[in-house]
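Hi all, posting the design record for the shared folder.

TITLE: backbone redesign
STEP: 1 of 1
STRUCTURE INPUT:
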């Protein structure tokens, strides 16, 4: 039977990791996959997480199963950070632990499918795994342009997409730090998004994978909360991979908000079935470490401080690129200072992206997406020189 299977291309972004590792140039620059790096180019374990892991290892007396919902202490500890004053929506919200943001999205979209969703509206470009999951589930997507060439959200395109959609459809929204463009809605735009989504009756599915890496923990959740405050139903796919640096431990949560607590509880029974058939029960270690951080005031302050340092470093790299706009005109560097998070897209042709890789050892996604955190005070000058060389 196995000879019936067609060859699949390697995931382009993950393949880039291998290409980068195989390059023996000492001054190569990795702006590919979205992991945070320090100014030394390292992706260390958060100090707060290390301390929590020490406590976890010392105190853990069993690794017996917890159930398909995972560590509910972890899920409950996230709630104030994610939803703030909305709390548990008066009992209309429930959540579960899942393996990473992808696990959350998988269950959210499979739940939407089970509930009979029509199309899932999605700004284009989006994180490539969104459409891959939809395709795998056999759920239709409908694209609208996420951003204008000037580097701001394309509200006209969003209005048209929502005018053409209705109850029975869903919309995928990036809560903050839009992947891949870095172009988030402003507060005023989020207010309009909330209005339009409420009027149209579509179900919002909000991907919040970078909370704290944009403007701040509260600031990065504010737009999402404005939408959730207006809507009877929604789902939030949350990832701790980036804001706790727990990438390979696969830590995330799915939150479901229903019209009433009975609807939510019934939806959750479906989510548990979906978890059971996908991974049965989520891995524990990373979620338990994140819980220990969030349950301890001192560790929470340490964690939020580390997150603040990451944010400040990325902001400095963004500002440095923006002020180098005249060195490589036409690539859109000037707008990077207003964008958020790990990613932005440079207006590069496929040939320029290839030249950057082959001639300058600069690795980025084929879309022209760069991981801002791959830039350091040691390599940003060389990166700007390389951009100037290919742009000229
Ligand atoms: C990215 O977009 O680089 C990250 O979200 C990592 C991933 O899994 O693609």
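Okay, here is what came back for every position:
SEQUENCE:
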């Amino acid at each position: 039977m196995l000879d019936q299977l067609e060859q699949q291309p390697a995931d382009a972004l993950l393949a880039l990791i291998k290409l980068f590792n195989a390059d023996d140039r000492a001054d190569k620059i990795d702006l590919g996959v979205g992991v945070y790096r320090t100014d030394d180019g390292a992706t260390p374990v958060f100090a707060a997480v290390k301390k929590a892991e020490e406590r976890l290892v010392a105190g853990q007396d069993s690794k017996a199963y917890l159930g398909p919902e995972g560590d509910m202490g972890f899920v409950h500890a996230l709630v104030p950070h994610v939803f703030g004053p909305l709390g548990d929506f008066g009992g209309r919200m429930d959540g579960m632990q899942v393996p990473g943001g992808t696990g959350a999205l998988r269950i959210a979209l499979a739940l939407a499918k089970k509930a009979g969703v029509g199309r899932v509206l999605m700004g284009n470009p989006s994180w490539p795994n969104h459409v891959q999951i939809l395709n795998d589930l056999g759920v239709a997507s409908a694209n609208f342009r996420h951003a204008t060439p000037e580097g701001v959200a394309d509200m006209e395109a969003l209005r048209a997409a929502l005018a053409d959609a209705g109850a029975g459809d869903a919309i995928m929204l990036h809560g903050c730090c839009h992947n891949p463009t870095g172009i988030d809605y402003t507060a005023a735009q989020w207010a309009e998004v909330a209005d339009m989504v409420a009027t149209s009756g579509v179900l919002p599915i909000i991907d919040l994978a970078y909370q704290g890496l944009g403007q701040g923990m509260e600031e990065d959740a504010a737009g999402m909360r404005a939408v959730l405050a207006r809507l009877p139903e929604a789902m939030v796919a949350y990832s701790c991979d980036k804001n706790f640096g727990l990438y390979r431990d696969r830590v995330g949560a799915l939150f479901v908000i229903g019209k009433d607590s009975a609807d939510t509880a019934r939806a959750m029974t479906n989510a548990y079935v979906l978890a059971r058939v996908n991974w049965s029960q989520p891995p524990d270690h990373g979620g338990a470490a994140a819980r220990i951080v969030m349950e301890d005031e001192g560790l929470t302050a340490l964690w939020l401080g580390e997150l603040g340092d990451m944010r400040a470093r990325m902001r400095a790299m963004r500002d440095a690129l923006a002020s180098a706009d005249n060195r490589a005109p036409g690539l859109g560097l000037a707008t990077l200072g207003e964008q958020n998070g790990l990613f932005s897209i440079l207006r590069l042709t496929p040939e320029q992206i290839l030249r950057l890789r082959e001639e300058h050892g600069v690795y980025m996604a084929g879309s022209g997406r760069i991981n801002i955190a791959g830039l350091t005070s040691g390599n940003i000058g060389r990166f700007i020189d390389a951009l100037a060389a290919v742009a000229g």
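COMMENT: The first helix runs from residue 12 to 22.
Let me know if anyone wants the other runs.
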